[in-house]
Amino acid sequence: MNKYIAKYKGIHPGIILGREFDKRSLRQRPFALSIDEHPQTLNAITKGRRDISIPLALKIEEKLGMAEGTLAILQTYYDIHKQKQDLETTSPNMNILRKSLFWDTDIDKIQWKEQSSAVIRRVFERGNDSEKNEITRFYGRRKVASIMNSRQRKPYSISSK
Questions:
Q1: Is the pTM of the predicted complex or chain greater than 0.70?
Q2: For residue 18, how many C-alpha atoms fall within 13 Å in the half-sphere facing its CB?
Q3: Structural domains of the chain, ranges and CATH numbers in brackets
Q4: Residue 19: what pLDDT?
Q5: Element (H or E) spanning 147, and its range?
């Protein structure tokens, strides 16, 4: 396997492309225009918000003198990495969470991603430390902190800011 690919396997190719621009002291806008691409598209790719298509990857590789297929292969490895993460984290470890926390619902029908706010609030209101740690591991510190710091108003109440 190419050393370049092995080194960056699992990282979004746009992040690597952004580093390459920095290394070569290239500006995104003129580069994008030189390959007949919208600057916004290239910017979204380098920020990791958009995937890179094979035709665009080929144009960029040719212009930068990179080996053909490098960015496309990196995109594929990134997609594989993302898919593996999604498969691993479809639900928290149910050996740690007590079913009694969710006494009012069928625990097998909880949509862990879509109902994250309700799950986090429930566990942090009624759960023990190991359950809180599991929910923090599953959702991430940032998301838990964001949900726990947001105040929910009661229906028909007036905010006292």
A1: no
A2: 15
A3: 3-88 (1.10.260.40), 99-149 (no CATH)
A4: 94
A5: helix 141-149
